[in-house]
Amino acid sequence: MVEVTYYCPYCGAVTSVERDATLEDASVTREPLADREYAATTDDVEAADGIEFVCLGDVEGDAVSPDRNSPRQRATDRTGGPRPDREGCGRTFYLNYRQSPPPTVGPRQ
Fold first, then answer.
1. Domain residue ranges of the chain, discontinuous segments joined by +
2. Which letter does DSSP use for residue 13 in this model?
3. Residue 21 and residue 8: Cα distance in Å, rounded?
4. I want to staple 86 with a disulfide (CB 3.0 to 4.6 A). Which of 28, 45, 75, 106 is the partner?
5. What are the DUF7969 domain coordinates in residue numbering (predicted)?
6. Number of helical (H) and strand (E) elements in the chain, helices listed first
7. Cβ 6 vs Cβ 15: under 8 Å
């Protein structure tokens, strides 16, 4: 098992999960992909097609705000990248594992 970190595509807050090191990530998305089964971070994440995260940020961490004096600020906007100094926004996002063969993109025919 390894601890892997991801950042929320809405606010950039960083979160982590422990999982098998052999799993391959495909993408992090705001919406679930069709025909995928997602596990909660507290479930068997290796048995699913991906993980459903609720953005809580670094709930156990000791990250501080950039000025190191004021309390951590709540993230409310998309910052364009990881923000380990921010609390989570509470929104749901999805980690998708790589599949063989890859999922079909676009409308089904």
1. 2-60+83-98
2. B
3. 21
4. 75
5. 3-97
6. 0, 8
7. yes
